Amino acid sequence: MRSVVFAPALVNGGVKSLYAVCSWLRRFGESQIQPFGAPGLARWFAHDCTLFDHSYEPDLVVYPEVYQPEFDASVYHLCFALGRHNEIRPHADLVICRSPEILHWVREHAPQLRAEVIVPSIDRRPFEYDDRRKVEQICYFTRLDKHPETALALRARYGAHRVIEIVDCSEREVAERLRQAQVMVWRGHRREGSPRPPKEALVAGCHVVGLEDDMRPGLATDFGVKCQSIEELLEAPECLFGRPPPTIAERAVVRSAREEERDWATLVQSLALEKVPA
């Protein structure tokens, strides 16, 4: 089976998931990345993917909901819905959803499409906590869509030296900052699929703090300290400074990429019996 995965090179949510799928699909034949939005491959995290060189015609194309190309009907179209940014177009043969909430959203606006969930994961290896002594620091992922005013409020309360804003960093830099900090404060947005940063922070030994609306089963982020208000969110880190990091058992709720890879393998094998040539 020959596949092409459409993925942007930008530092953005979902990119690592698309590259992981591209890598896993090589178990079944050729698989390469076709970038959109910016030329070239992503360089901000480690991967083994290569650019699509047009040396073959794909049997399978995988694309996110933010970019939905359409090919000949002989090509199997798999939309990997990582969030709720664009409604799924009807040429998708299958929609793989990143969370139960996305599945519900797809079934509301495109009930005719076949859709299912593959439970999300992360590659735990770059982030695994190494038992180092934690520092009284708070990590916050600052982006325009992630409530940057919260970072300002945290700095005002705890001092700039205690608030480490994570933006435009490589995966290695993110992992190092998370392994060092005691707390990670998270805020998402309504189009979120199943965010990685809270999972990466928990694996790195951080106490994760978020609003109840951002830390729930429907987003596969049902862990951490759940707050009912912004004021409670801002107060929580002070209570967590000095506490031991989450235990191995607590960190184990984050799924390993190897488990998700097995799910994708099972899926692709089933597709081979349908429309995708083996």
Task: Give short descriptive properties of this protein.
11 strands, alpha/beta, 278 residues, six-stranded parallel sheet, five-stranded parallel sheet
- Please, how many helices? 8
- How far the N terminus sits from the C terminus, by CA atoms, comes to 5 Å
Shape: elongated
Helix content range: 25-40%
Task: Name the strands of the widest sheet in spatial order.
Answer: 2-1-3-4-5-6
Counted beta strands: 11
Oligomer: single chain
The low-confidence runs, each spanning 5 or more residues with pLDDT under 50, are none
User: Averaged pLDDT, please?
Assistant: 94
Strand content: 15-25%
Largest sheet, in brief, is: 6 strands, parallel
Structural class: alpha/beta
Give the C-alpha Rg.
Answer: 19 Å
In N-to-C order, the SSE pattern is EHEEEEHEEHEHEHEEHHH
Describe this structure in words.
The chain is α/β, with parallel strands linked by helices and 278 residues long. It is 29% helix and 19% strand. It has 8 helices and 11 strands. It has helices at 15-25, 100-109, 148-158, 171-180, 197-203, 230-240, 248-251, 257-272, and strands at 3-7, 31-35, 60-64, 76-81, 94-97, 115-117, 135-141, 163-166, 181-186, 207-211, 225-227. Strands 2-1-3-4-5-6 form a 6-stranded parallel β-sheet, with helices on both faces. Strand 5 (94-97), helix 2 (100-109) and strand 6 form a beta-alpha-beta unit. Helix 1 (15-25) crosses helix 8 (257-272). The model has no long low-confidence stretch (mean pLDDT 94).
